Amino acid sequence: MKFSTRVDKNIPAAELFDAVANFDRIEHMLIRRGVSVTRGDDMPDGTRGWNLGFDWRGQRRELHLVLVQFDRPEKYAMTGESKPFELRIDMTAVALARDRSRLIFELEVKPRNMRARLILQTAKLGKTQIDRKLSARVAQFVDDAMAG
User: Fold this and answer.
1) What value, to the nearest 5°, has the Cα angle with vertex 9 and ends 93 and 134?
2) β-strands 100-111, 59-71 pairing
């Protein structure tokens, strides 16, 4: 299942990219929201990764994220894995004008088991509402990333 949204800002694209690619700031934002963050920088292939732990709907969830693409000042991508899902996050900063840019956020979620497949089938019924919530959350994330 794929989700995408875009956020327009009145700053240069390189500045927008630097704000959303500041991983130290993002880690602190997650920690303030109660997420346990452990870096996995010492991976054998030199890839940057994180292990995240958080409570969602009354259960502890674990997510492992790996940075798989980093093309400054345009795009970065992460892949993630939890017990029920695989995911890919792409963030692309596009210049609309000299001092105006757009962040394109794309999220693809794939099930890893039958229960996850059923969850995604149910989510498809409310995709419009999920898209609205995702757009609001990504816009808030961009604002928070630029504020620090």
Assistant:
1) 75
2) unpaired
Beta strands in the chain (DSSP E): 2-9, 36-39, 49-56, 59-71, 75-81, 85-97, 100-111
pLDDT digits 0-9 by tens, 9-61: 999 999 999 999 999 999 999 999 999 999 876 555 667 899 999 998 788 99
Instruction: Give the C-alpha separation, 94 to 8, whole Å.
Output: 9
- Whole-prediction pTM value? 0.89
Question: Distance between CA atoms of 17 and 2, rounded to whole angstroms?
Answer: 22
- Given a contact cutoff of 8 angstroms between Cβ atoms, the answer to whether 102 and 84 are in contact is no
Candidate CATH numbers 3.30.530.20, 3.40.50.720, 3.40.440.10, 3.40.50.2300; the one for domain 2-147 = 3.30.530.20
